[in-house]
Write a structure and sequence with these properties.
The complex is a heterodimer of chains A (about 350) and B (about 400). With about 350 residues, chain A is mostly helical. Chain A has 15 helices and 4 strands. Helices cover about 80% and strands about 5% of the residues of chain A. Chain A has a two-stranded antiparallel ribbon with strand order 1-4. A two-stranded antiparallel sheet of chain A has the order 2-3. The longest helix of chain A is centred in the N-terminal third of the chain and has 40 residues. Classes of the chains: A mainly alpha (about 350), B mainly alpha (about 400). The interface between A and B is large, with 38 and 39 residues.
């Protein structure tokens, strides 16, 4: 009824909007449901501490909790997006499912950790600018090493098995074992604590709304990467070739472009993005260890499945959804928070078997 | 007789037959040939993993379904037995209840997963199983009171399976074959063995594993198995011929899940311990994958060879690397790479190389060589079936 009225008055078709923009719809749905859950939670909480709950009090409390959790969730989603973006990029163009992606996340974390240790003067300096510069340098170092690693990995491990998905899965799993063992050779098997600069510890607060300082940095880096990827893919000539390669690889080759060079470049970029994710997550956890990447991989995989394998926009929205859902539930129903992303993935796949934004038909 | 036991699926290579015979005979007389606790754990593990890897091969090798949730079923079987024996008291009936409920749960989850594959295909399916399996692992560690969380469950088994129980008083004589080969002394190699509960347990395990393996061999050489192989080669065509591929896929996933659960139950009974790390971790899943591929996908004999070689390597490769490490102790980088702790890296390298150079695995490669030799000897009478065996 309401949708019909809406349609008559504004020409806005709800079902069509849901169909063409399922990612916006889901994000809105999760946000609204999260707010409602917060209201119920606040009501119960007020009643629980012996205060007569009123609607305004519950709404006010829920509002600030919702803003806090939404900000935290978006930041967490962006952290996951940074890690997942490389994998979906590589799959989108090359149709290579790189299960060794987690090893590159770990590699990035270790290289970044070493770089930060070498730059300890700047890390401990009492200026935000110097601290950020140290982190930026660490990220660049991690990207360079992981990019070089990606080059070797692509040449040695992945190239012989293009067009054979099963072997890709097997070989990249084998390759990631070797990378992780080599990391252990260089950095040792122990966990390494990674101190965050003092200026990025603690949080901002306004009233009841709290935002960790580091999460703000995560949001900034994540949005920069998303905007950068969108700009490169939609606005540059290389991006044009990548998009064309996703559509029809043979045609791009027939037009005289060496798609193999493009493949190498994209694979290196994917590994470098994984490394950025590794550094950012290492600083978030303040601890790096060899299982860092593997532990994140499950979330990364969930995110790129929700988004639709190969889609960067889908990956972005998938990551935000997972981050928001986790943060809302960790306040309202902590017991189920860990399974929320898996439940969301199954639900999305039942609704749309190719993910929110299907790019590749499999 | 042999034809009906092996369901007409012969090794088809003399070297392979010899290797299989060696492995089966060693396992059949293992308690009399290899003394010691480490050896006991190793040969029990080999038996269980032969069945586990074979049940994975039914999926991966015969039907080309990539699943990362196989350890989940292995764990379901193990935990069902562990929980039953812990909560229902130590008796044979709780063993049966445990094995039965593990099997039932595994079949049910397998059914759901098989139906899921109706909607979610190929790579998506593989990734979804990975996520579901990790969710199961989280669930297990959260339900601390029921599953023991990260500590696992220690439980006791019925009296007849304990080391303290002896079937008869007289000691038997065993022959330590490794000791004989290393020392060369016949007298020292003889050892006394009491036929205790552990040996009983091993023989139960051995017989059940052998039966399960022969059952799988029968299944995969039946019309059902042929349809599975048709799905592997070209699912669209199999469907066009008129087979409901979803039925076959679902039955296949269920069977594989059920057999994996039985293997888990046996392993738990043999070790008297259910722990997430030994049954459910992603490392175990990778090991199963390695064994399947190294042995040879789409050949159940590959599971025997792969599991036996891999577990022997896992247990004894570290010793070999230790010896090499001693030789190059002075060299800086080389010494780091050759420490016994790095055995997994060498295995990873071997794995990648074996996929490139022996994509058919050990069994497939031996069969190809045997077929080539046969066709060289009698060019006209070359067996066309042997040459095209297991193209995957």
């Amino acid at each position: 009824m309401t949708t019909q009225v809406l349609e008559q008055n504004t020409g806005f078709k709800l079902s069509e909007w849901i169909d063409t923009r399922p990612h916006h719809f889901l994000l809105l749905l999760v946000g609204v449901l999260g707010f409602l859950a917060m209201v119920v939670y606040s009501w119960q909480h007020l009643a629980g501490i012996g205060v007569e709950p009123t609607l305004t009090a519950a709404l006010g409390k829920a509002g600030s909790a919702w803003v806090t959790m939404t900000l935290a969730g978006l930041a967490m989603g962006l952290l996951i997006f940074i890690m997942a973006s490389g994998m979906t990029l590589v799959f989108g163009l090359m149709h290579v499912l790189n299960l060794g992606h987690g090893a590159f996340i770990t590699l990035g974390a270790f290289v970044g950790g070493s770089a930060l240790a070498a730059l300890s003067g700047m890390v401990h300096a009492d200026s935000l600018l110097a601290n950020l510069a140290a982190i930026a340098l660490a990220i660049v170092a991690a990207m360079l090493v992981a990019g070089a690693g990606g080059l070797v990995f692509e040449r040695l491990i992945v190239r012989p098995v293009y067009h054979d998905p099963l072997k890709q899965i097997l070989v990249t799993v084998g390759g990631s074992i070797v990378i992780l063992q080599l990391i252990t050779v260089f950095w040792g098997p122990n966990e390494i604590p990674l101190a965050r600069p003092a200026s990025l510890l603690g949080s901002f607060s306004a009233g009841d709304i709290v935002l960790e300082k580091y999460r703000l940095l995560a949001v900034a880096v994540g949005l920069t990467i998303y905007a950068g990827m969108q700009a490169v893919i939609n606005k540059t000539r290389i991006g044009l070739l990548i998009r064309a390669g996703v559509e029809n690889q043979e045609m791009v080759e027939n037009l005289g472009y060496r798609i193999k060079l493009l493949f190498i470049a994209v694979f290196m970029a994917g590994s470098a993005l994984a490394a950025v994710g590794g550094v950012m997550w290492g600083l978030y956890d303040q601890l790096i260890h060899t299982h860092l990447g593997d532990l994140r991989m499950v979330q990364v995989i969930i995110v790129i499945i929700i988004g639709g394998l190969g889609s960067i926009t889908g990956c972005f929205y998938g990551a935000l959804l997972v981050g928001l859902l986790f943060n809302y539930l960790s306040l309202v129903a902590p017991a189920v928070a860990d399974f929320a992303s898996i439940g969301l993935m199954v639900a999305v796949l039942m609704w749309r078997p190719q993910g929110l934004i299907p790019v590749i038909r499999v | 007789m042999l034809n009906s036991i092996l369901s007409g699926d012969y090794p088809r290579s003399r070297a392979l037959s010899a290797l299989l015979l060696l492995i089966v005979l060693s396992l059949a007389f293992a308690p009399f040939l290899f003394p010691g606790t480490v050896a006991y754990q190793t040969y029990s593990k080999i038996c269980v993993f032969i069945v586990l890897v074979a049940s994975y091969d039914i999926l991966l090798g015969y039907t080309s379904i990539v699943s990362f949730a196989h350890t989940m079923f292995f764990g379901i079987g193990a935990y069902a037995v562990a929980i039953a024996l812990r909560d229902l008291g130590t008796s044979w009936s709780s063993v049966l209840i445990g094995v039965g409920s593990g099997l039932a749960v595994a079949l049910l989850v397998g059914l759901v997963m098989g139906l899921l594959s109706l909607r979610v295909k190929a790579i998506f399916f593989a990734l979804v199983t990975l996520a579901v399996a990790s969710g199961f692992l989280i669930l297990l560690s959260k339900l601390y009171h029921f599953t023991g969380g990260d500590d696992g469950i220690r439980f006791s088994v019925p009296r007849e399976l304990r080391p303290a129980f002896t079937v008869f008083e007289d000691k038997l004589t065993g022959f330590d074959i490794v000791g004989f080969l290393t020392t060369g002394s016949l007298d020292e190699a003889l050892f006394k063995l009491s036929f205790d509960g552990r040996v009983v347990m091993y023989y139960i395990l051995f017989v059940v594993c052998a039966l399960l393996f022969l059952m799988m061999l029968r299944m995969m050489n039946s019309p059902f198995g042929r349809v599975c192989q048709a799905i592997r080669e070209n699912e669209f065509r199999a469907e066009a011929i008129g087979y409901r591929t979803v039925y076959f896929r679902t039955i296949n996933v269920c069977l594989s899940a059920g057999i994996a659960a039985l293997a888990g139950s046996l392993m738990a009974l043999a070790t008297r311990y259910a722990h997430p790390e030994t049954f459910l971790s992603f490392g175990v899943m990778v090991n199963i994958l390695l064994m399947t591929v190294i042995g040879g996908m789409g050949t159940l004999y590959g599971a025997v060879v792969g599991a036996a070689l891999f577990i022997l390597a896992e247990t004894y490769l570290q010793g070999g690397l230790g010896w090499l490490h001693g030789k190059v102790a002075g060299v800086p980088v080389l010494a780091d790479i050759l420490t016994p702790e790095r055995w997994l890296m060498w295995l990873g390298i071997l794995f990648v190389l074996s996929i490139y150079f022996f994509p058919k695995g050990i069994v497939g490669q031996l069969r190809v060589w045997a077929a080539e030799r046969r066709s060289r000897r009698t060019p006209d009478a070359a067996d066309p079936a042997a040459a095209t065996v297991s193209r995957h």
